[in-house]
Amino acid sequence: MTAPLTTEFTTVSFLGLGAMGFPMAAHLAARSRDTGGRTLVWNRTPGRAEAHASEFGSVATSLEAAAGADLIVSCLPTSAEVDELLDAVHTHLKPGSVWVDCTSGHPDAAPRQRDRLALAGTRFLDAPVSGGTAAAKTGTLTVMVGGPHGDVEAVRPHLAFAGKLVRVGDTGAGFAVKAVNNALLAVNLWAAGEGLAILGLHGVQLGAALEVINASSGRSNTTENLIPQRVLTREFPATFGLGLLAKDAGIALDMAEAAKGSAPVIAQVTGLYRAAARIVGAQEDHTAALKLIEQMNGIELK
Ligand code: NDP
């Protein structure tokens, strides 16, 4: 029988204080301060949790203690790492609690994780986020959630890092929307890189070309923001790993294959980003994928 849902989320915890988790957990800690609750933080490398505690007033704890919270939020690289944590903590969960996974995970993992947690009386919501480290810092992330309506509404006020939160369907739908969103990012970024390489090979000044494209029908977030700020400057600030974007495109491709769908552009782009992650480096910023296009064309996009 399902344990009744906790109505008081007095203790919240955050697992995984990476580029996204660190600033996201800061918003939970600020809310706890305002509401008289507690935010526990755990990170595999403990120094990061201790740094969070001293900067934001959260409490650095063991994984087991964090798992006993009323609301558990996780943000790890992939669903595989979330599975590892579920294995480690399932006896420490509190019946009636909710686990909100903000990892850009795999839709196939979500029902399995939900069922696993249900054995301990804990609800599961897949709730990946969009907006990057900038929106994580300002608490304006877009959150796409899969799971039962009542559970989503119960946690909505507590997810203080969200600027917009949309329930997109049942368990797994959040992961699915995130994968497709990021596959679109991958396609747009790659296509813009190819376009600029062609222009560069023809001696066109790329700043001027982007000024025109951004006032024309070829524009996208990649031409308006990512390429001018990260590629043309040659800065490539590592806020979202190239390996993570390759992973997301691969999830969208898995979804197409599972449904026997036809998505040849996403298939090709997935292969290109996997190659870029291997050749340029999985830890590099995702925009560094364009360095592979540069190598293919013997020019620099600047
Ligand atoms: P990071 O690489 O910056 O952080 C990863 C976090 O996961 C770290 O806290 C790391 O701990 C932890 N971790 C890694 N492996 C394990 C493991 N085996 N067991 C326990 N903890 C582990 O990633 P991001 O914060 O950039 O990304 C997290 C998720 O958010 C990903 O799914 C990504 O696709 C998604 N995302 C990222 C965005 C971005 O702009 N960066 C934007 C939107 C979504 P440790 O410190 O010990 O290494």
Q: In short, what is this structure?
A:
The chain has 302 residues and is of the alpha/beta class.
Write the layout of secondary structure elements.
Blueprint: E1 11-15, H1 21-35, E2 38-42, H2 46-56, E3 59-60, H3 63-67, E4 71-74, H4 79-89, E5 98-101, H5 109-118, E6 123-126, E7 129-130, H6 132-138, E8 141-146, H7 149-155, E9 162-169, H8 173-201, H9 206-213, H10 221-231, H11 242-258, H12 264-279, H13 290-297
Helix pairs in contact: 1-2, 1-6, 4-5, 8-10, 8-11, 8-12, 8-13, 11-12
The structure holds NADPH dihydro-nicotinamide-adenine-dinucleotide phosphate (NDP).
NADPH dihydro-nicotinamide-adenine-dinucleotide phosphate (NDP) binds next to helix 4, strand 7 and helix 6.
Beta-strand residue percentage = 5-15%
Number of strands: 9
CATH topology of the largest domain: Rossmann fold
Straight-line N-to-C gap? 61 Å
* Overall 3D form: elongated
- What is the string of SSEs from the N terminus onward? EHEHEHEHEHEEHEHEHHHHHH
Number of domains: 2
Low-confidence stretches: none
Radius of gyration, CA atoms, in whole angstroms: 20 Å
Q: Structural class from helices and strands?
A: alpha/beta
Which CATH top level class of the largest domain fits?
Alpha Beta
